[in-house]
From TrEMBL:
InterPro entries reported in the protein's UniProt record: Glyas_Bleomycin-R_OHBP_Dase, Glyoxalase-like_dom
One Pfam family linked to the record: Glyoxalase_3
PANTHER family documented for this protein: BLL2707 PROTEIN (PTHR40265), GLYOXALASE-LIKE DOMAIN-CONTAINING PROTEIN (PTHR40265:SF1)
Signal peptide: none
Protein name: Glyoxalase-like domain-containing protein
Residue ranges constituting the Glyoxalase-like domain according to the UniProt record: 5-194
Amino acid sequence: MHFQFDHLVHFVDSPEEAREALKELGLHAVNGGKHDNGGTYNALSYFDLSYIELIGVFDKHLADQPAEKYSLGDTFQKDNYTSGLSRIALRSRNLEKEAERLKSLGLEVIGPVPLGRKRPDGSTISWKLLFAGDPEEELALPFFIEWEEPDEERRQGLKEQGTIAAHKRGAVSLASVGIAVNNAKSVIEKWAAYLSLEQGESFNDEALCAIGHRLKLEGGDIIFYEPDGEGIVSDTLKRRGEKPFIVNFSGGSIQEQFEVKDALYRFI
């Protein structure tokens, strides 16, 4: 197994406001910390080790500094810091090996880059990031993360800090992230090869007026939605291009969806 789902990046004007919006939906969310070099800071909502990062800018001058190609900072700048779902990160235990593999598939690869930040309690958290892409493609690939601590240690630490905790809404899991695309078949074949992931059956999502094409991933599937008529997917493509736009949760007691800071949060 090469990868697991790690986190979804939701860019927002105010991580504090977004954190409160999630709490109103019955989701546990906490302050994260600052990325001092990048001029950004975050709040976090965990579903076991899969999480949503609500990220915003505290220093525009720092955020505007030249960013690594295919990095999150590069994406934020290209999107002009527009509120909404931005990128997904996949977790690996061996980014050096993945860098070689992705290069062998013809992708441009940057990293692994060592990074870290301070938690609110003053402790330091460390990780490495890897960025990869194809300059011809509109849709940004996931970026890749390797945490310093093994998963079990990290889970235990996050529980002790109260970062992973029960959701008032119930035993909710992050089931999938949906990405609006023009040609799902073409995209899913490339991503399945790059990420060594298995494809699921395609399906009709009538609520979104779209056909969904699933990539199976431990911790949260990736679904490519291609428009099937006018709706949220066709609208996302017109407004923002090929981007994530929805996060689907399973395990809640009530089926409903909410708009949170220019993104859809759907409980299914």
